[in-house]
Amino acid sequence: MRKIVILGGNGFLGKKLTEQLSRIPTNAVVVYDRKLPSNNQRFANVEYISGEFVTGYDFASLVRGAYLVIHLISTSVPGTEKGPLDEIHTNVIPSVELFDSCVAEGVARLLFLSSGGTIYGGSAYRANRETDPPSPYNTYGLQKVMIEQALQLTSHYSSMQYQIIRLSNPYGPGQNPHGPLGLITKLVYQATNHDIIHIFGDGSVVRDFIYIDDAIQGIIDVIEHGEMNSIYNLGRGTGVSVADVITTIEAALPESLNIMYEPARKVDAPYSVLDISKYRAISTIDEFIPLAEGIKRTHNFFITHSE
Fold first, then answer.
1. How far apart are CA 97 and CA 102, in angstroms?
2. In 32, 39, 116, 201, which residue has its Cα 20 to 30 A from 49's Cα atom?
């Protein structure tokens, strides 16, 4: 059996990833998170451990005997992050302690989920490659860069191998429509419930959106087929403006949209798209789920799981 520890295993991505990895009979999956699902929502063959991602936690006991550790946890998200010092204390230092514990316990591999949307900053209207220098435009991206570099340094001086995934903007069923992340999920939820939709700016901001099922398969592809000690961009590799997202939602859903435009925000880079050529070389996905289809699936989820 291969022990796999997923930190942040009860989040949007973590739940889906846990579900997929726990289906493999040779995997013994352990989920670690601050909040755990109720007993009737847990997978029978998964161990659940509750804990805070903080400095001084006994990460050594958590990862003991693990073959693979998957680090999905962040105590902040874009829009809720604080100053650089707070991000260092709450995200960077605990991550470094986790890495040190993994090395001490002989963990073979560690995968870190970074941010393709904030690492590169505002690009010159072209897709960002893994070789592009990081230029984060908020402290969330800054802490991701620091954790990436700490992991690379730890691996360099140990036998532990790493993989880093810079994920774009995932959306779909299971994402919290009331949270600060997930533009498409929020817009579909608001349209379904006839809420006012607030759009910052004129809708020209361009992002790389990826449906949750594709995002999870992409992570598994990197785990199973990706190079060690390497970084992978993961998205659809296609830019879509907020205005085009709205147009697609209007065409795909029966509800009418009630849109209110607000002043643009400085935190929103005008263009953020990933070059996924490197991932494409190992991908098992023939075609990504189209935006309209992902919107319809998300809408159907909210209809069948109405609050």
1. 9
2. 116
* Distance between CA atoms of residues 252 and 229, nearest Å: 41
What are 33-63's pLDDT values in tens digits?
A: 999 988 888 988 899 999 999 999 999 999 9
Domains and CATH numbers, the chain: 2-169+209-234 (3.40.50.720), 172-208+238-272+289-304 (3.90.25.10)
Report pTM: 0.95
Please count the other Cβ atoms lying within 10 Å of the Cβ belonging to residue 54. 13
Residues 6+ apart with CB under 8 A from 118: 78, 136, 137, 138, 140, 141, 144
